[in-house]
Amino acid sequence: MPLEPEHPPANEEIIKSGVGAAGTPPPPLTFGQRLQNLEKARRRSRLYAEMRSGQHDLWVAWIEGLLDPSSDYARVPVRTYLLCLPYVGTGKQQRWMREANIGYRRRIGQLSQRQVDGIAPKIEAALERAGLLPDAE
Question: pTM for this structure?
Answer without folding.
Answer: 0.76
